[in-house]
């Protein structure tokens, strides 16, 4: 049963949900402060060896790293869009009644879910061509970042397919039967009755997978896609490749991702709790 | 083993050009075995470390000290919400730069090897998820059970060790299985800090022999096999330890 938003809000206030969220925000602030202080400490170490400090280098190169981070975000959004569309398709195939469609879909889902992201990334990066030749003579170039985006979409696609299958299985059998009694076809039942209910259930895990996908995009740096990590590594190289740069630069990258992912994680948890109310 | 499968794969190479040299060339076969052993060890140690951290963290979260609880909370949020790959780089390059090196007679070697850093980083990363999983399990232990233990004169520690933990472990097993399997997959990331595990080794093999598609297939097959076996093993444990009276 759904409750009015106000009552839900009050209930959350009572059980400490909102307060817990606030406390978590404090943790974020503390972490950021920690990062800055660590960077400052590393700077002090750095001044012993060279005139320009590590922190100054970090500030110098921050815009460059942030530009890389924008590519991370673009890849994550694009990959999630691809994964959602293909994953829903694969999930629908998984719940098909024809074994000829269902079994291959299940096998593909199993493969996609059970192989490491890095292995899929290698597979796609090495086996896809640099460009696609169209029959008419046209050519579509496939830059590395596009291939990486496709690679990141694949494991998420498998998991979205599984989310859909799980959500459909949780719908009570009575709903299928009553829809049949009202002369709905199978397609109509799915379209108007079953799938709309799955969306609510599916959104928190879907957001969770978006967070995981975004956290995986740095792997593209292995193939020198110019995203945050490879830009940071290039910056360190350009700033003299001093060992005292490593700590602040990597810490900065960690904070960058944390600041983006953490609110998403908190929001996911809130939605999870809201949708869990029966 | 090599005598058994070697001729087939050599023949396959001669006839079709599919060069699975890790299965007939003794040198490459040795590399393959070493990579497999490293990957399995890496999986074993990181899973073990993550479990230990999970239990300790869950215990610390139920502690009375506010600072301890905050510390564990900060740890979980920090490691759950940042990319594992950058965590590895941070540990290996960032912190590794500060660990001392020992003189090995002619060349110096850091005290903590890349393998050890991978175990530490992956263990801490997986542990952050395990803490939450165990915490949820501990919270799910019915109060009546704990009260019963108290009335039997169990001390706080005894209740925790003999009642709460075994029950919590069994309640959290399904979620734990998922996380451990995903952690096993994440170990392939150790490639980026040059741990000679399967991904790294096969990378070298295909750079030396230019048989990328074949080795890719081997890599894919290897991980699918390992992950499927691990999942099957953990599911078997799950079935054996299932709590009577819960679920279906």
Automatic annotation (TrEMBL), chain A:
Residue intervals passing through the bilayer: 66-90, 111-128, 249-271
Any single GO BP term: amino acid transport
Keyword Transmembrane helix: yes
Domain ABC transmembrane type-1 stretches: 69-262
Intracellular or extracellular location(s): Cell inner membrane; Cell membrane
Origin superkingdom: Bacteria
GO molecular function: transmembrane transporter activity
Key words of the record: Amino-acid transport, Cell membrane, Membrane, Transmembrane, Transmembrane helix, Transport
Membrane topology, from the record: Multi-pass membrane protein
Pfam families for this protein: BPD_transp_1 (PF00528)
Chief location category: membrane
GO CC terms of this entry: ATP-binding cassette (ABC) transporter complex
UniProt keyword Manganese present: no
NCBIfam families, per the entry: HEQRo_perm_3TM (TIGR01726)
Protein family (similarity comment): Belongs to the binding-protein-dependent transport system permease family. HisMQ subfamily.
Protein name (database record): Amino acid ABC transporter permease
Organism classification: Bacteria, Pseudomonadati, Pseudomonadota, Alphaproteobacteria, Hyphomicrobiales
TrEMBL record, chain B:
Pfam families per UniProt: BPD_transp_1
Family annotation (InterPro entries): AA_ABC_transptr_permease_3TM, ArtM/GltK/GlnP/TcyL/YhdX-like, MetI-like, MetI-like_sf
Every ABC transmembrane type-1 domain range: 36-235
SUPFAM superfamilies, alphabetized: MetI-like (SSF161098)
Topology of the protein relative to the lipid bilayer: Multi-pass membrane protein
Annotated keywords: Amino-acid transport, Cell membrane, Membrane, Transmembrane, Transmembrane helix, Transport
Membrane-spanning residues: 42-60, 85-102, 114-138, 215-237
Keyword field contains Cell cycle: no
Main localization, broad class: membrane
Alphabetized GO MF terms: transmembrane transporter activity
Places the protein is found: Cell inner membrane; Cell membrane
Keyword Heme: no
GO BP, sorted A to Z: amino acid transport
One Gene Ontology CC term in the entry: ATP-binding cassette (ABC) transporter complex
Family recorded in the similarity comment: Belongs to the binding-protein-dependent transport system permease family. HisMQ subfamily.
Protein name listed in UniProt: Amino acid ABC transporter permease
Provenance organism: Methylobacterium oryzihabitans
